[in-house]
User: What shape does this take?
Amino acid sequence: MVRSPLSILDLVPLAPPGGAAAALRASTDLARLAESRGFRRYWVGEHHGVPNVGAAAPAVLIAHLAAATTSIRLGSGGVMLANHAPMVVAEQFATLEGLHPGRIDLGVGSAAGATAEIARVLRQGAPAGFAGKLADLAAFLDGRHHSGIRVSPAAVPGPPLWLLGASESSARLAGELGLPYAFAHHLNAAGAEGALGTYRGSFRASARLGEPYCLVSVAAIAADTEEAAFRLWRAAGGPDGVAVGDGPTVRGALAVLSGKLAADELMIVTNVFDAAARRHSYTLLAPLS
Assistant: This one.
């Protein structure tokens, strides 16, 4: 049994013939399923120019998903802060928090989520400066930016700020700033133990968070049979580090991983193109199955 709370990371996988419209409808249906089956959070990513991935505008998609659900927490996994002005991100997510109080998470990462050419277009020549942008974003959310400028709507408190990463450097930064940390095990399974140890060892309590909190995103594919699960795995490109099998097998693997990493929360990534199979995989792994 997986004792850690379970959440979902959605990269909006695209596949013909439905394309983007069908993928976005599938994500809406999946968010509703996640809410009904007891998942804690539903986060969406930010990727640009990546074939077969439709998650490009987290704030827009979160607004839609929040309107289609009633209670599940929704967030970004994550906003790639190097691509954006911190004040704009703060205002977008303060607006989301105002519309849906207590339901919004703002996860940010330092990667571009894009090719170098697309990243240059997104940034329009502005320097990335992730650490400085992160400090600016936190200050805008807290209403204490050195410029004296306050974000709009100013009366709305900013949502929880998370740092995402897949390395010890991101883990150390999250710990030093006293932020909750989301580690991308689905991108760097081998580095998970070291990064989470670094996070906990460098953690300093802050106004945002009194104790370390580690969320681990892990790739998993479940089906009624092991054979069916592996067919889905092969169709998705056969990535490494994925828990694959029938429901009990995958739940057991997730429980072992959660215990090994002392994860406070697991966030499942099931990046398969068959929308019905993806929904069924999450149904088999759901807290309320």
About this structure: The longest helix spans residues 19-36.
